[in-house]
Structures are given as C-alpha cells and as structure tokens.
Amino acid sequence: MTKILIVDDEPQILRALRINFAARHYEVAVAADGGSALRQAADWHPDLVVLDLGLPDIEGIDVIHGLRGWSQVPIIVLTGRVGSADAVSALDAGADDYVTKPFGLDELLARVRAATRRAAVQQVETPVVRIGDHTINLTDKTISGGVRLTPTEWHLLELLLRNPEKLVSQRHMLTEVWGATYVTATHYLRQYMAQLRRKLERDPAHPVHLITEPGMGYRFRP
C-alpha cells in the first residue's frame, strides 16, 4: 500500500482526507503541525506528503526544507489562493505540486496519483517522448519531421520532459537555463515556450502538452 502523510491543522480536513484516502486503499498517517510532521516522516518514511502551508508552529516552507534535507519524497502542498507567493516559494523549496483550497477530492487524488507514478519511475530514463505528431529523442537530441531546436529550447524542453506532469516553477527554469540573475525575466520563458509550442504542438494556441500554470510555471502533460 502507498503510504501518505497528511499534514494540516484543520481537524475536519485531516479527518475527511484520512477517510477518503483509506477508502481508496492508501495507508494514511496524519499530523496537525510541522514538528509532528517531521518526526512522523522520519519514523514512518511515507511515499508521499500532502502538506498545508499554514501550520501553527513551523512554516510549511520550513517543513519542506526539513524533508528535503534527507528525503526526495513527493510533496503536494495545499495553498489558499491561485498563484500565491507561498505556493511559488514552496515549489522553489522542493515541493512537487500544489492544490488550491478549497479543492475537490478528485483533483487532489489525481495529483497524488501523478506524483506517485513519477516517483515510481524516477530512476528510469525515458529517452523517447511524443508531443503531438512528433517523436522526441532526448538521447541524441532529434525530433521527427525535421524540427530543429536551439540549445536554449532544448534545455527548457528537457526540464519539462524529464519531469512529466510535474509543475516546474518559473524560477527553477530561469535559474537552470539563464542563471540566478535572471529569476525575474519571465518574459524570456513566455517567448521560448511560445516558440516550442509553435514547433511541437498541433494547435499552438490551445496546447495540450506544454501547459502554462499562470503565475507559477509550466507542466508537460504526456
């Protein structure tokens, strides 16, 4: 059974999530504050953590830092509003995804399934990926149909393709490709992502693979 640690200081949310996840054959542990969450994670070694950012004792961001000091367990954060600075900071600290409160259970379950799938295959390289009508080989950097990419386009595309369904933050992409001094140059990302969509998506105006999460980052959806 997949082991999930749920961290939230609202008893109703903890109870509802514990019941619903257990009903779907997950093994569930709960914690109502950051200190308990870190101790529980160290003792129990969950397969995934659902973490509310607004905790009474320790900031959710600090819990992420604490976990990332020794573990790569997938972390899905719960945040109060779309595009919040807290959610961006959580992604930059090492969270894998986020869900905005109030959230639907189906949405959270889908994010959990996606994160656990990624974790199960994270050691397996997938050198060949399809986007629309194109086959992309990440090993020899070729694309079917004679599509050519610049080195910068390749770098951005690889960041997304090697993390399928994961939300990759703007800050991470900018830092990886252009360096730490460019973390606010989001217009670079918009321009390059538009170019990638024109080259790879069947309908660049309505992309289905290279997805924008407004104010947050980008996601590759296979």
From TrEMBL:
Entries under CDD domains matching the protein: REC_OmpR_KdpE-like (cd17620), trans_reg_C (cd00383)
SMART domains: REC, Trans_reg_C
Residues bearing PTM 4-aspartylphosphate: D52
DNA-binding region: 119-222
SUPFAM superfamilies per record: C-terminal effector domain of the bipartite response regulators (SSF46894), CheY-like (SSF52172)
Stored Pfam families: Response_reg, Trans_reg_C
Name by which UniProt lists this protein: Response regulator
InterPro entries: CheY-like_superfamily, OmpR/PhoB-type_DNA-bd, Sig_transdc_resp-reg_C-effctor, Sig_transdc_resp-reg_receiver, WalR-like, WH-like_DNA-bd_sf
Domain OmpR/PhoB-type: 119-222
PROSITE patterns: OMPR_PHOB (PS51755), RESPONSE_REGULATORY (PS50110)
Domain Response regulatory as annotated: residue spans: 3-116
Ribosomal protein keyword on record: no
UniProtKB keywords: DNA-binding, Phosphoprotein
